[in-house]
Amino acid sequence: MSLVEARGLTKIFRRPEKDPGLRGSLKHLVQRRFKEFRAVDGIDLSIEAGESVAYVGPNGAGKSTTIKLLTGILVPTAGTVRVAGAEPHTDRMVNARNIGVLFGQRTQLWWDLPVRESLGLLRDMYDLSPAFYKQRLERLDDVLGLADLLPVVARKLSLGQRMRADLAAALLHAPKIVYLDEPTIGLDISVKDRVRQFLRELREDGTTLMLTTHDLGDIEDVCERIVIIDEGRKIFDGPLAQMKDRFARVRRMHLQLAEPTPAEKLAERLPDVEVVAGASPTEVTVTFDRFTHTAGQVIAAVLDVVEVGELHLDEPAIEDVVRKVYAGELLR
Amino acid sequence: MRRTLRIYRRSLGAHLRAVLEYEADFWILVVAGLLFQVLNLIFLSAVFSHVPALNGWSFPEAVLLAGTYGFINGLGPLFFEGTWRLAGKINHGELDYPLTRPAPVLVQVVSAGIGMHGIGDLIGGGAMIGWGLANSDIYWSPLRIGGALVLLAGSATILLSLIVLGNAASFWVGGNHPVFAMTLIRTGDMAKYPLSIYGVAVRAAFTVLVPYAFISFFPASWLLGKESAWIGLLTPVVAVYCVYLARLVFRRGLRRYDSAGH
């Protein structure tokens, strides 16, 4: 069985339906009306041990809700979840020992306590032996530079420091599976790199990762598999490379021509293909759908008109693909 | 159970150390708690300067009663202060992390803070109990001392359970502030005076509906051998019932928890 197994996972929130203004609020007190909102709508998901999965979707797609269902924070409206054999919301305590959770927008450190005290409390809750605790702290200090942060009260930490301390808190008990909800949000480039480096190391150690993010760099740096959801439904689930194949239809070729040639002249030879003049008269950029044209066909057509000096092909960027999914283009 | 208690103790200890960092704050709160009890005393002495007794309760007996109530009320901030932050936690979705840790959520909530004004209440209330006992006519035996301590423990349990119960209502009420719990607990302040001065409706409500009377009135009545003194002996039973109810309501509430955002 997979480490994480979700079948038909559904969460419906009930929202009060009020007319605007005070009158609407008063009316609602007497005549209560609610509207159902499906945040997660029948999601099937299996994650094998050791996998690193990016869970991606536009704002409000149901990413965080899924994480909250998988971690046992929320009780599903319908469907089943098993994480390492335990049902998270009923076997909460058992599940808690298997998982590490980080919500990038929020800290789990005790606000008024020094980081050291927060980690100490977690040590007690997870029943970590002194030797194991010491070893974990040393390991986490190596990769996260924790030592300087230990005596600092959580509310005095900068965002980057807080995220490092929070990562340490989430990983202190060496969990089997780690859920990260936007682990790099608001971080500057250097801290971001450090966090990604850390996540890669974690993956190499065999920890199962599931992360939601809007930062596509996180995905390419850390994950092998991508799950895209929108409006609570899964719309893609597969290897990152496969997603590029499937969705990155558009390719772009930059050509350096032997002599100045107007773009229109090339366009005549290439129906259904967009040809744009470049910065100089000898440069053009050709954008084509790789399911209707091959790169060879495009080059052949161009060579009929003019000699080509140099060319290069843009690799399909995951950013473009995900951006299109967000914009709803791929759903049509 | 032992593990739970250890987690509770460690968490409370960590917050105590944090509070003690701010010495001035600490002393101000202790003095504030103490002042509150002194005000109670001044009010009582003002009343008793006009009447020799209140429905059969002498001044020292009334001081004993108010002192017991004050003392037990000091336990709330000292040991259960975190409970008052539950409404805000629910509202902001801050129970997410506690739900992912292998420790009871209630313990994590309850121990997430400490209120030093409780010390002032304990000192002030304790002094009033001492003075009241010394000046009241009480027949003492080892059994009665033991009984008094059991009843005191029962009273404390009732109040702490009511604090949990009232705050757990926030799972249904919503909002950022524990309005319901505030109302529930402050209404109980009426129980620091002899219950017999109130009408039948209040007496019935404070005995059956919300057992405020078991926090100080009935136990003190038992110790002082007042009318229907035996009711005081029910305090431990009421305490067990309150604990059961508080846990039930908190658990039900936790299942309703919707987090924040989605």
Architecture overview:
The complex is a heterodimer of chains A (332) and B (262). With 332 residues, chain A is an alpha/beta fold. In chain A, 37% of the residues lie in helices and 28% in strands. Chain A has helices at residues 21-30, 63-71, 92-98, 115-125, 130-144, 159-171, 189-204, 216-222, 240-247, 263-269, 295-305, 318-327, and strands spanning 4-16, 34-47, 52-56, 78-83, 99-103, 177-181, 208-212, 225-230, 233-239, 250-257, 274-277, 283-289, 308-314. In chain A, α5 packs antiparallel against α6. The two termini of chain A are 35 Å apart. The mean pLDDT of chain A is 87. Chain B has one domain (2-256). Chain B is built from 13 helices and two strands. Chain B is globular and about 60 Å long. The two termini of chain B are 34 Å apart. Chains A and B meet through α2, α3, β5 and α4 of A and α1 and α5 of B.
Topology:
The complex is a heterodimer of chains A (332) and B (262).
Chain A lengths: L3 E13 L4 H10 L3 E14 L4 E5 L6 H9 L6 E6 L8 H7 E5 L11 H11 L4 H15 L14 H13 L5 E5 L7 H16 L3 E5 L3 H7 L2 E6 L2 E7 H8 L2 E8 L5 H7 L4 E4 L5 E7 L5 H11 L2 E7 L3 H10 L5
Parallel strand pairs in A: 3-7, 3-8, 5-6, 6-7
Antiparallel strand pairs in A: 1-2, 1-4, 8-9, 10-12, 10-13, 11-12
Helix pairs in contact in A: 5-6
Chain B lengths: L1 H19 L2 H26 L4 E2 L2 E2 H22 L5 H6 L4 H4 L5 H6 L6 H18 L7 H27 L1 H4 L5 H9 L12 H10 L7 H8 L10 H22 L6
Organism (chain B): Catellatospora methionotrophica
InterPro entries (chain B): ABC-2_transporter-like
Keywords (chain B): Membrane, Transmembrane, Transmembrane helix
In brief:
Chain A is α/β, with parallel strands linked by helices. Helices cover 37% and strands 28% of the residues of chain A. In chain A, the strands form 3 sheets. Chain A has a 6-stranded mixed sheet, with helices on both faces. In chain A, strands 11-12-10-13 form a 4-stranded antiparallel sheet, with helices on one face.
